[in-house]
Amino acid sequence: DSQDYDKEVASVCPFCGVGCQVSLKVKDNKVVYVEGINGPANEGRLCVKGRFGFDYIHHDHRLTKPLIRRADAPAKGLNVDPNNWQEVFREATWDEALDFAAKGLKGRGREVAGFGSAKCTNEEAYLFQKFIRQGFGHNNVDHCTRLCHASSVAALLENVGSGAVTATFNEIENADVAIVIGANPIENHPVAATYFKQFAKRGGKLIVMDPRGQALKRHATHMLQFRPGADVSMLNAIMHVIVEEELYDRQYIEAYTENWEAEKAHLADFAPEKMADICGIDAETLRAVARDFARGKAGMIFWGMGVSQHIHGTDNSRCLISLALMTGHVGRPGAGLHPLRGQNNVQGASDAGLIPMFLPDYQSVMDDGVRSAFTEVWGSEDFSNQKGLTVTEIMDAVHEGYIKAMYILGENPAMSDPDVEHARDALAKLDHLVVQDIFLTETANYADVILPASAFAEKSGTVTNTNRQVQMGRPAVTPPGEAREDWAITTELARRCGMEWGYDSPADVFAEMKLNMRSLENITWDRLARENAVTYPSLSPEDPGQPIVFGDGFPRPQGRARFTPASVIAPDDVPDADYPMILTTGRQLEHWHTGSMTRRSAVLDAVEPEANCSLHPSTLRKLGVEPGGHVRLTTKRGSVVVMARADRAVAPDMVFLPFAYVEAAANILTNPALDPYGKIPEFKFSAVRVEAA
Ligand code: SF4
After folding, report:
1. 288 vs 285: CA distance, rounded Å
2. I need a labelling partner for 64 at 20 to 30 A (CA). Which of 94, 335, 579, 603 fits?
3. CA-closest residue to ligand 1 atom 2
4. 13 lines ligand 1 (CB under 6 A)
């Protein structure tokens, strides 16, 4: 009813990478409800988070004034009550807080590192990486992509030449076969999942592969609940069948790929009969899946953190890329590779250069010509040609004493890092920590100065979803109290650190980004303001963008994609007598990441108010714990107590633990061992002991 609101503003859901467009209904400077609108990814649909998860914007925990740690505050730690922070922090003016923040950073070169966030807009992410590179002369800047799809991107860049998806998820409408592996889209990409379900209802062959059962199973032609960590064995076995039965696309391989003979030879060792026990899937099923996928006219592969968050995450993705290439399932309608992005702007923040190896558009920091193209635009000196440190390496460098000051925007490493006590100890060791956020997050607990920032509904900026769709976010309400837009805060801080930045708006920043980002060709701020979304690449000012890329070759030498054979590497932390079960972590439908937003959303928190884990009913019986009772989970890193749910989707030797709950932080338990290529930690596999609490 139009009486219910004063105005409506089109924007983009701030949660997952699907990037649903929303209409924010505003009354008296408050968002009162939200409806889906006809964006290219969602066509009017929303999930429970998009529809009901907006009231955190107006929560009374919002930061409204800059805060500075009191000289007599207790030692740094998770000891700040968001309702009673006055013992630890005092209010400050913006001038005092910005001067204080800048004083602790300016001139400290390599002692400073920065974490931006996939919650940032493209413009904020671009400014943040520029702040570190221009202001401090190095590349120690990263964000949560390192914890998410870094290994997928490493494999895609290596073998396809581009880290983004080759086809939008909506292209499943044109497919007749699709694999969903290591992803639980009904919970984590719910609107994308509606397209997957429709595909299956139309008769498409849906192949779901996951160590944990899931609701998509109901729609699947094949459900492969394989042993955790056995991805490479299983995928190589499937590809072995494709080679053995000559189901591959010889013409495609000859025209568009390289290193096929090496891949073929490597796969000879992976007969399904040999791999069946290792991956827990019988040989006949592996053969049937190989035939169904290879014989499909158009096939897509979707994957998530279940693939990427392993020490062999890059190898897992290499296998998926090889599978798509050998079957010719790339570059056509209904065919392609699609790592489902987890956060609203993890694609855009990565595109904007918020990573230690790459400047915007994945241009190498090691390339002199690339750096000089940027420093020319920035009007500044050259900076380091060495790749910077990644998220977890930065925390190690704090412990080693190399990094002493940090600027953290929107990221919450005190919850999100693996072996999180190690990260918390590092944050406590810093002699200067600047945190810019909307809440007093767990990370802000460790800050020396806190800069109150803006929620998505309070600012302008573009974001890029999992489909490569650049979309316009618009302000619907004003920030609370003295909170400011993030681009303006970073700009002020840069000026006080000696950088001559003259931006007046995010549109100015976007115009600068376009100077060195070919991906934004034909995409302008005005166009986005008019059209809401444009997919990159866009071939002309009228082209809405290309949903499918690489139909005529790849951005690699000779235009050829590459087969990179993958060998089996065991998980790092294997079960033993003391830690006999396997822990895997993830999100659940109602909560998003570290919970700072969704746990402050009344509806979502009412549905899922308590830290929980899922165990097979037979495991609960053995433990003597009733569903709803509590268990203690212990790994080599630490221990938490959580409520236990009975869930047949979890194998008897596994436990699934969501990571949104500070009172039982999953990352106290997780293993920081890294994939050597993507530098992503092995969140998805830790040896664990489960006991009645
Ligand atoms: Fe938001 Fe993702 Fe849900 Fe869409 S599917 S409404 S983007 S959380």
Report:
1. 5
2. 603
3. 16
4. yes
ipTM of the complex: 1.00
Q: Ligand 1: does its nearest atom lie under 6 Å from the Cβ of 49?
A: yes
Instruction: List CB contacts of 358: < 8 A, sequence separation 6 or more.
Output: 364, 365
When pLDDT is cut at 50, 70 and 90, the band that residue 146 belongs to is confident
| Summary mean pLDDT of the chain | 96
Q: How many A from CA of 279 to the centre of ligand 1? A: 33
Which atom of ligand 1 lies nearest, measured to the CA of 191?
5
Q: What percentage of residues in the chain have a pLDDT greater than 90? A: 97
How confident is the model over 101-129, as pLDDT tens digits?
Answer: 999 999 999 999 999 999 999 999 999 99
Asked if residue 420 has pLDDT above 80, the reply is: yes
Lookup result for tokens 């920081």: 672
Centroid of ligand 1 to alpha carbon of 344 (angstroms)? 8
User: Residue 15 Cα, ligand 1 centroid: separation in angstroms?
Assistant: 6
Counting ligand 1 atoms within 8 A of each CB, the residue from 12, 16, 45, 194 with the most, and so the one to mutate, is 16
| DSSP-based three-state secondary structure for 108 | coil
pLDDT at 562: 98
For ligand 1, say whether the CB of 50 is within 6 Å of any of its atoms.
Answer: yes
The DSSP secondary structure of 264-304, one letter per residue, reads HHHHTT--HHHHHHHHT--HHHHHHHHHHHHH-SSEEEEE-
pLDDT at 540 over 80: yes
The burial class, CB within 10 Å (0-12 / 13-18 / 19+), for 265 is exposed
For range 295-314, the mean pLDDT: 96
371 to each of 54, 139, 378, 440, how far by Cα in Å? 40, 11, 10, 36
288 falls in which pLDDT band (50, 70, 90)?
very high
pTM (global) more than 0.95: yes
19 lines ligand 1 (CB under 6 A): yes
* Residue 432 dihedral angles phi and psi, to the nearest 5°: -155, 115
User: Which two three-digit tokens encode residue 254?
Assistant: 């000859």
Residue 3 confidence (pLDDT): 65
Q: Do residues 105 and 112 lie in contact, with contact meaning Cβ atoms separated by under 8 Å?
A: yes
Residue 220 Cβ < 6 Å to ligand 1: no
pLDDT at 445 over 70: yes
Which of 422, 439, 434, 430 shows the shortest CA–CA distance to 80?
A: 439
